[in-house]
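Researcher: Structure prediction, please.
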Amino acid sequence: LAEGANGPTTPDADLVLDKRRDEIFLIPDILCNSGGVVVSYFEWVQDLQQLFWEEEEVMRREYHILDRAFEQMVARARADNISHRTAAMAIGVEKVRAAKATRGLFP
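Model: Predicted structure follows.
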């Protein structure tokens, strides 16, 4: 089940999906719907550096980031016996925490 919108699942439905996670493979909205944010970041990077990537380059870079995020989410969910949504959120929070520790709140 791929959540292609922001917050499409109610908390009650999420509980059902979590109970049936062995039957229903969920790609949560935080990951499934993140391609636009990734490409917006690429646009910002290109603008800052005055670069102009071809569409194939954008797609290659986007696929690399999303594929890695997907694999990390699945591995974390299996390792910790948690839902894909919880795994994706945990990974995101950890990345923000690490960035804050490295750069501070207002770099």
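Model: Helices lie at 11-19, 29-32, 35-49, 55-80, 84-103.
Researcher: Thanks, that helps.
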